[in-house]
Predict the structure of Nuclear receptor domain-containing protein.
Amino acid sequence: MEKEIAPVVEQNTRHCLICGVPITEFHLGIDSCRACSVFYKRTLPLNQNYLKCKRGDGKCVTTDTTVNCRKCRFTKICDVLARANQETPDAVNTVSEGLEQDTSCNRLQPASVDDFIDHTSFFTCVPSCSSDTPYLDRIARGYSLMCLIRKSGELAVMPTGSNPDYGELEGVELKFRPGDYKALLDTSKITAAATYDFGNATFDDFCALSEADKIVALTNALTHFTLCEATYRAAHHFPNDDTVYDYR
């Protein structure tokens, strides 16, 4: 009896429009690799006048597939985005608005205090349905709830005699305390529990899942969620250090 062999499904190979490497996902709203996307985001807010073409003719990208000329690489990304903007202005404008910053001073601007979520905002009224960003409002409120749960839990497991002062509770001061394996386990459990409540309070689809499916979803996403939140907190406490985004 012959064994039936399933047909092989061919996948269309896509390549980065900037450097030509094979890709399985897109960035910046176009077919671009992650490396080109990161390069563009880091270069955009800077003064591009310091970029110089290595060959001097502005054609490095067309002759060198390794794209080792920063000037030509950045120029090509801008050209590709401009062409895509002419074809699909709404989609690319959404990407550009999220990337563009004030270039009048040609340098990175530290994040404003207003850009971060007030950890006590859970006690405020829920925004009305007329808000322009109702889903983001729910995320901010859910994250505020998660922070309150974590604060209460972490205070409960702190060793006797190491109670935080008022400045730490209000987020004005930042003090690093020595930790041990037990403290790491305790805070990890508190974070997982708080993230569980964050999902229930914020996402209707998550709230509708069974308890078993919620645990599976939380287990799979907790590491990535923790990395994103750690970067967010680092940017909050160290607003003038743009290297905090390099450790994701």
Summary: The mean pLDDT is 71. The longest strand covers residues 14-15. Residues 211-237 form the longest helix (27 residues).
